[in-house]
C-alpha cells in the first residue's frame, strides 16, 4: 500500500477490524519511512449479473422484476408474500450459483415457471400465459394439457 503522505510503498498494518456491518475491513496502517498513520478500507468487488433480454439487449439483474411478475401471477391466490420471497430466494441462488456474468431471461423465466408450478398451478398458468406469449386459446390449452398430464 502506498503512503498518501510521502508515496513510499513500505507500510505496515497496525490494526484490522470489520467495518460497514462486516461488508468491508478497516485497516490502520503506518508508513515505515515517514511514520505517519492512515486508514484504508478493503471491500469485496463484485461484478453485477447481466441479463440478456429477448431482443439481445443487456441490463443489470433486478430482483424486483421477478417479484413483480410473480406477485402479479399470484394475485388473489392463497400464496403468502413469505412463500413468494422464499421462491425468489431459491431462484436467485440457482442463478448466482451458475457462476456466470450473463444469463438469458429465458433461463430465469424457466426457473420461475418450474418453481411456480410447485407453488400454485393457477399462478403458474397466469405467468406462463404472459411469459410464453400465448397467441391463442390453443396454445393456452396445450400448456394446460401438459400441466394435467404431469399430475
What is the string of helix and strand elements? EEEEEHHEHHH
Question: What integer is the average pLDDT?
Answer: 90
Give the amount of beta strand, in percent.
15-25%
Helix content: 40-55%
How many beta strands in the DSSP annotation? 6
Q: Which value, in Å, is the CA radius of gyration?
A: 25 Å
Q: What is the first-to-last residue Cα distance?
A: 62 Å
Return the structural class.
Answer: alpha+beta
**Largest β sheet strand count, sense and barrel closure:** 3 strands, antiparallel
What descriptive keywords fit this protein?
alpha+beta; three-stranded antiparallel beta sheet; three-stranded mixed beta sheet; 5 helices; elongated
Describe what this molecule looks like in 3D.
The chain has 151 residues and is of the alpha+beta class. 44% of the residues lie in helices and 22% in strands. The chain is built from five helices and six strands; from the N terminus they run E-E-E-E-E-H-H-E-H-H-H. It has helices at residues 63-73, 81-97, 105-119, 121-131, 137-149, and strands at 11-19, 24-31, 37-43, 50-52, 58-60, 102-104. A three-stranded antiparallel β-sheet has the order 1-2-3, with no helix packed on it. Helix 1 (63-73) crosses helix 4 (121-131), helix 3 (105-119) packs antiparallel against helix 4 and helix 4 runs antiparallel to helix 5. The longest helix is centred in the middle third of the chain and has 17 residues, at 81-97. It is elongated, with a radius of gyration of 25 Å. 11% of the residues are buried. The model has no long low-confidence stretch (mean pLDDT 90).
Amino acid at each position: 500500500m502506498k503512503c498518501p503522505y510521502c508515496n513510499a510503498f513500505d507500510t505496515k498494518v497496525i490494526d484490522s477490524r470489520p467495518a460497514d456491518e462486516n461488508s468491508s475491513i478497516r485497516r490502520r496502517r503506518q508508513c515505515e519511512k515517514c511514520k505517519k498513520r492512515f486508514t484504508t478500507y478493503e471491500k469485496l468487488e463484485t461484478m453485477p449479473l447481466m441479463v440478456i433480454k429477448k431482443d439481445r439487449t443487456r441490463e443489470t439483474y433486478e430482483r424486483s422484476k421477478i417479484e413483480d411478475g410473480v406477485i402479479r401471477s399470484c394475485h388473489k391466490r392463497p400464496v403468502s408474500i413469505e412463500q413468494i420471497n422464499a421462491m425468489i430466494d431459491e431462484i436467485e441462488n440457482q442463478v448466482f450459483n451458475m457462476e456466470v456474468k450473463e444469463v438469458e431471461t429465458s433461463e430465469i423465466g424457466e426457473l420461475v415457471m418450474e418453481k411456480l408450478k410447485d407453488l400454485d398451478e393457477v399462478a403458474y398458468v397466469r405467468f406462463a400465459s404472459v411469459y410464453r406469449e400465448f397467441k391463442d386459446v390453443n396454445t393456452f390449452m396445450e400448456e394446460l394439457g401438459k400441466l394435467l398430464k404431469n399430475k
